[in-house]
Amino acid sequence: MTAPGPAPDFPRYARQLALPEVGVEGQTRLAEARVLIVGAGGLGSPAALWMAAAGVGRIGLADPDHVDRSNLHRQLLYGPADVGAPKVEAAHRRLAEVNPDVRVDIHQVEVSVTNADRLVRDYDVVLDCTDQIPVRYAVSDACVAAARPLVHGAVSRWEGRVAVLAAADGPCYRCLWPTPPPAHAIPTCAEAGVLGPVPGAVGMLQAVEACKLILGAGDPLVGRLLVLDLLRMVTHAFAVPRDPLCPACAAGEIRERSAPAGVAAPAASPFPLPSEPPVSPSPAEPSAIEEIAPAELAARLQGAEPPLVLDVREPWEHAIARVDGARLVPLNSLPAALSTLDPGRAYVTLCHHGVRSRMAAEFLRERGLPRVANLRGGIDAWSDEVDPAVPKY
Ligand SMILES: [Zn+2]
Known about the structure:
Number of strands: 13
Bound molecules: zinc ion
CATH topology of the largest domain: Rossmann fold
Distance between the termini: 46 Å
């Protein structure tokens, strides 16, 4: 914390100041914080509105688009009079009404590998509120390089995900999704549909996590991926480790490739994160889950009591490459599918490289399925070691 700023507006923030996690010092931290929101749409709208109202002093909005009438059911930064206007300009007007003390920086650009480093280094915390997959990778890589925590949010139909990435000892976006999907494999809101309040809920959770990071309060979602199935109202926080082989946050290859030469090392964030990820309520020892090699899975599938293979990847990945007989249960759907699984049966979880499937295996073990193993190396290793006919991606 540098020199103290002006005293908080006591009447406005009275209910926050009363919290022991906030108080005058916390409200001052919020006022001095700089938060970048990438994407001023269904997630960025609630995130920006709630952080402005809470007194986050400087909010950057990056979005290249104009307001469309089809945005209005979920993007509450905008009203009918804003249709056709640049989103960042309309959002600036609305946020000034919500809280005139907040400084709003507008960036009417698509964030990419060419500008992400420069944008991110001016802020303390970054929110990933985009629905563009290449933008997610660019923002995550920039946050790893600049040591800025990234509050990830995503929605599809009735489902949402929230995690704090690129934090000390936590995973980055590439740890969880090492390989970008092929273009157009992930349907957008326009193609898949979305109920307005679903991104509202997820964006609001991102605002809560950002405020916690600024305040240094509570247990942020570092090392945990919160998945929400709001149609069935089932949620779960999966433990997500950093991938020791991650090309971005472990080896630094992406950092070197995308950081422009001659750029000075970014200043450390004034909001350092805990050096250890928080302990989940019922942690499972990593060693508690049996890791099996592809050849061992092949042998068991030929045995007297073959396990059921649970493929926890996304449908687009399953469409590219799959193991015969495996049941597709994407990770988001796993909590809701739990009741359909027989606790007496043996299971082997599978994903692309073995990281997501380990989360799934630990979840199943915690929930009372004793015979769960994880396929080490995922379907990639299966293709290498058992069945070269299975395509790699
Ligand atoms: Zn990583």
